[in-house]
């Protein structure tokens, strides 16, 4: 389906930029009195280097595999640079430079090792208290120390918790994709075995009887005709078996697909709810609805980061309407092959598929009423 590029993702990308507003404090401290060119060059150079490292720490949004290790190394580099910047610029910024210690604690939170993240954050807090130990700050300056210490530790813990959640979510997506791949491989193997069992022996018999009929055509036409009729009978039986097998491959209906969807969503920590009773559906409509539901659930598990999925199937004047809504990241990114295929399938049936990325993702499929009339309720499935 689609890997969305939603507003929440954009907000997450820009969120670290908002925190850069706190650099106004060391900048204001530096500008309190006239500075020499060398002091200005030192301040501007360290500030630019700090900004470059800070932005590199936050640019890895999904920490998986190699990117996770790269982000953790950048986080350590950012923490070291924050301490260096604080000490080097301390004569120029005084207490306002403690903002760099808060930034350092927030960056070191991007670590898989909890002990490393928290101990280095506590070290930043100790460095913040250091000027009081040396007498550089006076007791009158204590009013800003407590909130800064709290903010330092909270920033480290919050970013570490967020980092752990993102790693866990990314690992879950990897596991889910692997499970889907293994399931697809197992299904292909099952189909291959079924086709071999169904057609292997039957086609061999047909070939042998056809060869026999060809040899008997001139010497014993009656026997040859009998063999040809036998070939026809065996072929019809094989055709019936193949049709039955194909019907089984098409699935067991929307209710069965809903049950499979609930299992997949439960594993991903997403709640599934079905609103209202499910009407009976014509076979083409039910097959299309089941496939759309499977595609939508796959997208939710892989990309949506949703907490709930709601499914509604209602009777309309011209057929049936299936609405699948999630409260995930949403967005209006380009559609993948899954949605494109479903859109083409619905168009071939005379229906249409619409997508709305506002407040999550909502897929609305209108199926034409070409086959059956209005059915009775088929039960209610809830999470």
From TrEMBL:
<keyword id="KW-0175">Coiled coil</keyword>
<feature type="transmembrane region" description="Helical">
    <location>
        <begin position="40"/>
        <end position="58"/>
    </location>
</feature>
<feature type="compositionally biased region" description="Gly residues">
    <location>
        <begin position="373"/>
        <end position="383"/>
    </location>
</feature>
<keyword id="KW-0812">Transmembrane</keyword>
<dbReference type="GO" id="GO:0000155">
    <property type="term" value="F:phosphorelay sensor kinase activity"/>
</dbReference>
<dbReference type="InterPro" id="IPR050482">
    <property type="entry name" value="Sensor_HK_TwoCompSys"/>
</dbReference>
<feature type="compositionally biased region" description="Low complexity">
    <location>
        <begin position="352"/>
        <end position="364"/>
    </location>
</feature>
<feature type="transmembrane region" description="Helical">
    <location>
        <begin position="115"/>
        <end position="136"/>
    </location>
</feature>
<keyword id="KW-0418">Kinase</keyword>
<feature type="transmembrane region" description="Helical">
    <location>
        <begin position="142"/>
        <end position="159"/>
    </location>
</feature>
<dbReference type="InterPro" id="IPR011712">
    <property type="entry name" value="Sig_transdc_His_kin_sub3_dim/P"/>
</dbReference>
<keyword id="KW-0808">Transferase</keyword>
<dbReference type="InterPro" id="IPR003594">
    <property type="entry name" value="HATPase_dom"/>
</dbReference>
<protein>
    <submittedName>
        <fullName>Sensor histidine kinase</fullName>
    </submittedName>
</protein>
<dbReference type="GO" id="GO:0046983">
    <property type="term" value="F:protein dimerization activity"/>
</dbReference>
<keyword id="KW-0902">Two-component regulatory system</keyword>
<feature type="domain" description="Histidine kinase/HSP90-like ATPase">
    <location>
        <begin position="288"/>
        <end position="371"/>
    </location>
</feature>
<feature type="transmembrane region" description="Helical">
    <location>
        <begin position="78"/>
        <end position="103"/>
    </location>
</feature>
<keyword id="KW-0472">Membrane</keyword>
<keyword id="KW-1133">Transmembrane helix</keyword>
<dbReference type="Pfam" id="PF07730">
    <property type="entry name" value="HisKA_3"/>
</dbReference>
<dbReference type="GO" id="GO:0016020">
    <property type="term" value="C:membrane"/>
</dbReference>
<dbReference type="InterPro" id="IPR036890">
    <property type="entry name" value="HATPase_C_sf"/>
</dbReference>
<dbReference type="Pfam" id="PF02518">
    <property type="entry name" value="HATPase_c"/>
</dbReference>
<feature type="transmembrane region" description="Helical">
    <location>
        <begin position="12"/>
        <end position="31"/>
    </location>
</feature>
<feature type="coiled-coil region">
    <location>
        <begin position="165"/>
        <end position="192"/>
    </location>
</feature>
<feature type="region of interest" description="Disordered">
    <location>
        <begin position="352"/>
        <end position="383"/>
    </location>
</feature>
């Amino acid at each position: 389906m689609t890997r969305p590029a939603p507003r929440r993702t954009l907000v997450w990308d820009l969120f670290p930029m908002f925190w850069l507003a706190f650099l106004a404090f060391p900048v204001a401290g530096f500008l309190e009195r006239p500075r020499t060119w060398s002091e200005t060059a030192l301040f501007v150079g360290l500030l630019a280097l700090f900004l470059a490292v800070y932005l590199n720490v936050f640019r890895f949004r999904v920490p998986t595999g190699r990117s996770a290790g790269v982000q953790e190394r950048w986080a350590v580099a950012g923490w070291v640079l924050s301490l260096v910047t604080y000490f080097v610029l301390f004569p120029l910024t005084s207490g306002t430079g403690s903002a760099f210690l808060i930034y350092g604690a927030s960056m070191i939170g991007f670590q898989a090792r909890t002990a490393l993240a928290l101990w280095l954050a506590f070290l930043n807090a100790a460095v913040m208290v250091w000027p009081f130990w040396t007498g550089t700050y006076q007791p009158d300056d204590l009013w800003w120390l407590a909130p800064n210490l709290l903010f330092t530790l909270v920033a480290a813990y919050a970013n570490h918790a967020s980092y752990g959640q993102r790693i866990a979510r990314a690992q879950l997506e990897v596991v889910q994709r692997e499970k889907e791949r293994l399931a697809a491989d197992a299904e292909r193997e099952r189909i291959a075995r079924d086709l071999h069992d169904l057609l292997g022996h039957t086609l061999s018999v047909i070939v042998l009887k056809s060869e026999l009929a060809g040899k008997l055509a001139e010497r014993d036409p009656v026997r040859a005709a009998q063999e040809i009729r036998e070939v026809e009978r065996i072929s019809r039986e094989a055709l019936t078996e193949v049709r039955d097998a194909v019907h089984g491959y098409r699935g067991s209906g929307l209710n069965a697909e809903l049950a499979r969807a609930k299992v997949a969503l439960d594993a991903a920590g997403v709640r599934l709810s079905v609103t209202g009773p499910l009407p009976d559906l014509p076979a083409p409509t039910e097959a299309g609805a089941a496939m759309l539901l499977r595609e939508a659930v796959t997208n939710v598990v892989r990309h949506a980061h949703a907490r709930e999925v709601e499914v509604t199937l209602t009777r309309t004047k011209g057929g049936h309407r299936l609405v699948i809504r999630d409260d995930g990241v949403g967005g209006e990114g380009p559609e993948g092959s899954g949605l494109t295929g479903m859109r083409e399938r619905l168009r071939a049936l005379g229906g249409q598929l619409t997508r709305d990325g506002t407040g999550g993702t909502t897929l609305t499929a209108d199926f034409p009423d070409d086959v059956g009339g209005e059915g009775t309720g088929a039960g209610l499935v809830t999470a």
